[in-house]
């Protein structure tokens, strides 16, 4: 990301929003011009095909001091577009918004006020969401409850793009897939203070929605990934090794059952001998044993990869919030006495 030189960056990823970008641009100015905040509006065109890029060029030309435009060569997805906007932004505070005019720019000063209460992230909550119930609101509600439960971050609406972030919270964050909605989780896991605030949500009046129920599965898969990263990124052997040890234990159990059917079944029950080969036990025993060995070996490889990742890039396995000391200590070696 670029060095912070202004107060606020409004980051708006857009894709085929020809009719919405102009009104949204005007509304943002109406909401912020009277506040005295030094801000920029940064549109990221995610490979639009309907002439949106041409409208954005005109908006930038008419408002060169406040408006900037990033044009991606192809459609890369909302998360990638948002990541491009974050990298090109200058603000000390960053507020992403949707480009469909459903987020209300009048909420921006309120988000900043909430952020000023000492929080690092303020997430918008579309409590009265103006979308269709079956294919938008219901899947979103279920996904939000699942995400809150698995992450331990009690936010009602992870999918709301409109959030306020302090720049330092996003330093070093790399976004993939649908992970832009999980930034409050990353911030919370890093010790940041996260809050939420009810924001106005408006019905779409122009253009076509780009979201569908199919994205719910992508969100769930990304959630599994970040949960794994949070718990095991520094110790993958603990995950794969545990799976391996359990598999070997199951293998031993099935092998013991094979021995039982071979030598003890008739003796203990009085029924004729049951040939263990008639059961799936041999197959299960071999399968669990091979799975266990492979899991342990995979854990060792993952452990070496992660250690190489951290050490080659000089990444730390900890995050310092504040350093309290009486004086600066020089890193130069002291002269010998």
Describe this structure in words.
The chain has 337 residues and is α/β, with parallel strands linked by helices. The chain folds into two domains: 6-232, Spore Coat Polysaccharide Biosynthesis Protein SpsA, Chain A (Alpha-Beta Complex); 236-312. 46% of the residues lie in helices and 12% in strands. The protein is built from ten helices and seven strands. The chain has helices at residues 21-32, 52-62, 78-88, 108-115, 133-151, 167-170, 183-189, 215-232, 236-269, 281-312, and strands at 6-14, 39-45, 67-71, 91-96, 121-125, 163-166, 194-198. The protein has a seven-stranded mixed β-sheet with strand order 3-2-1-4-6-5-7, with helices on both faces. α5 runs parallel beside α8 and α9 runs antiparallel to α10 (281-312). The longest helix has 34 residues, at 236-269. The protein is elongated, with a radius of gyration of 27 Å. The two termini are 46 Å apart. The mean pLDDT is 81.
From the structure above, extract its key features.
337 residues; alpha/beta; Spore Coat Polysaccharide Biosynthesis Protein SpsA, Chain A; 2 domains; seven-stranded mixed beta sheet; 10 helices; 7 strands
């Amino acid at each position: 990301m670029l060095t912070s030189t202004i107060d606020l960056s409004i980051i708006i990823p857009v894709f085929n929003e020809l009719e919405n970008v102009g009104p949204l641009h005007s509304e943002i100015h109406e909401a912020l011009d009277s506040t005295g905040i030094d801000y920029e509006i940064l549109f990221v065109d995610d490979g639009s095909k309907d002439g949106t890029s041409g409208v954005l060029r005109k908006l930038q030309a008419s408002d060169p001091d406040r408006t900037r435009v990033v044009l991606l060569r192809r459609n890369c997805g909302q998360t990638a577009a948002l990541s491009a906007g974050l990298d090109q932004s200058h603000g000390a505070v960053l507020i992403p918004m949707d480009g469909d005019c459903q987020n209300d720019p009048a909420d921006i000063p309120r988000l900043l006020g909430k952020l000023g209460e000492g929080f690092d992230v303020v997430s918008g909550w579309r409590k009265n969401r103006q979308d269709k119930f079956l294919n938008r609101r219901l899947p979103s509600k279920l996904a939000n409850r699942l995400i809150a439960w698995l992450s331990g971050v009690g936010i009602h609406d992870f999918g709301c793009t409109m959030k306020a972030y302090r720049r330092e919270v996003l330093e070093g964050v790399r976004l993939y897939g649908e992970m832009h909605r999980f930034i409050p989780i990353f911030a919370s896991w890093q010790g940041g203070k996260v809050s939420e605030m009810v924001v106005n949500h408006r019905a779409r009046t122009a253009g076509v929605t780009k979201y569908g129920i199919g994205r719910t599965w992508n969100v769930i898969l990304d959630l599994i990934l970040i949960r794994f990263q949070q718990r095991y990124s520094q110790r993958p052997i603990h995950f794969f090794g545990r799976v391996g040890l359990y598999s070997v234990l199951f293998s031993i159990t099935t092998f013991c059952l094979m021995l039982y059917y071979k030598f003890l079944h008739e003796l203990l029950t009085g029924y004729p001998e049951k040939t263990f080969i008639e059961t799936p036990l041999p197959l299960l025993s071999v399968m669990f044993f091979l799975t266990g060995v492979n899991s342990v070996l995979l854990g060792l490889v993952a452990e070496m990869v992660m250690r190489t990742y951290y050490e080659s890039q000089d990444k730390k396995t900890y995050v310092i919030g504040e350093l309290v000391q009486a004086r600066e200590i020089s890193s130069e070696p002291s002269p010998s006495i």
